Amino acid sequence: MAENTWDVIVIGAGAVGENVADRAVQGGLSVALVESELVGGECSYWACMPSKALIRSGLALRAAQRVGGAAEAVTGNIDVAALLARRNTFTNNWDDAGQVRWVEKAGIDLRRGHARLDGPKRVTVTDDNGEISTLTANHAVVVATGSDPKLPNISGLIDAEPWTPREATSVKEVPESLAIIGGGVVGVEMATAYRDLGAEVILFARSGLLNGQEDFAGDMVAKALRERGVTIVKASPTRIKRTSHGIDIDTETESFTASEILVATGRTARTTDIGLETVGLTSGDWLSVDDTMLTHGTDWLYAVGDVNHRALLTHQGKYQARAAGDVIVARATGEPVSDAPWGAHVATADHCAVPQVTFTDPEVASVGIMSEDAEKHGIDAQVVDYNLGWVAGASLQADNYEGQARLVIDRERHVIVGATFVGQDVAELLHSATIAIVGEVPIARLWHAVPSYPTISEVWLRLLETIGRP
């Protein structure tokens, strides 16, 4: 075994791990970054980027079809081969050479292999040839291993060799039909994409779509999917069997057949084989952290991104990574730690200002606290709704525009604590809402933030008019 010592060891070279490593190096620390698969991780190759590339062409096509003059010029359907080729450009054909060059240029030492903790501040790395090296950290080890698909306990599911999101986003040939289990973000996004790709889609969503969002979001997405021919089944499969003709799927009352089946029922921590037991933690568990991403009960082990189960979104993981990288540097060099709420070394926004876009048609963009959750946060909430179709800019964006906006207002503090927009092209409205929530901008001050006319952003003025002047 070879022995190597670094200031910081980061396990997992996805977007989150890369950001921790980069911040630590910029702060003057030496960093070893360990990865067993592709540098760039899930987001780059099997999640955010390829999934949105699969979805984008259909959204663009329908956007043109909704505008008189442009609609008449659209004469064809999606070119599947061209769409998949474009998707491949975003994954670099699943080649991480470009990401590796960035890591090297940043001054980060990349180690290929499977990493396992081996006691406090020690990590063993087993490469593809079975050779083991041992790395020791002077200051911190960071776990940024992400999460894996969670498979439900359904008779025959494993034997049917289901797709996970990885197979769905890296597909080379589109199946004639696709069954999807799960009505969350992945389920509805892949239903959107595969219907555009020409597949018949059956979506099993026992509890409806997009639970955790405002109710109207799931209802509007369900309506649109049904109009495009997606079959939504409000039941869970009880038995699944792959045959020579496809996959047979039974619920308690009905039977269905599809060419392939995708499981999109949540995530589980990717911690089953990283040596947690060697430092007194439980293999397979999510890692519980404080707001500086330091794992509870330790003074050296950090966990960032999906693995800490705070907000399973790439942008939130990168936000956590910046805070963690900077606080590791501060603690290592004896600089002051800014760990009060909204300080430089904490991820306060995880608790109250997490933005998320679901790339369906219509899009769903939300941030902060949903109306039904306000009471449990101790907030006396005013809920304000406005029909986006009444906004001049929206009617210019698309003929017969359909959409909905909602603000959740804290009556006591007179600030916005939650916002949801549903409609075509609403994703770009979200950051203004995020700024208003993070900045705790008083409603009275927002009256002076004048939206340009005629844009969809004019909905902000209409919402304020509905609230009324303080």
TrEMBL record:
Do you know which InterPro entries this protein is assigned to? Class-I_Pyr_Nuc-Dis_Oxidored, FAD/NAD-bd_sf, FAD/NAD-binding_dom, FAD/NAD-linked_Rdtase_dimer_sf, Pyr_nuc-diS_OxRdtase, Pyr_nucl-diS_OxRdtase_dimer
Q: Does the keyword field hold Plastid?
A: no
Q: Cofactor(s) for this protein?
A: FAD
The record's SUPFAM superfamilies line, in alphabetical order, gives: FAD/NAD(P)-binding domain, FAD/NAD-linked reductases, dimerisation (C-terminal) domain
Pyridine nucleotide-disulphide oxidoreductase dimerisation domain spans which residues? 354-460
**Annotated signal sequence range:** none
Keywords assigned: FAD, Flavoprotein, NAD
Query: Which part of the chain is the FAD/NAD(P)-binding domain?
Result: 7-315
Q: Which family does this protein fall into? A: Belongs to the class-I pyridine nucleotide-disulfide oxidoreductase family.
- Know the name of this protein? NAD(P)/FAD-dependent oxidoreductase
Q: Which organism is it from?
A: Rhodoglobus aureus
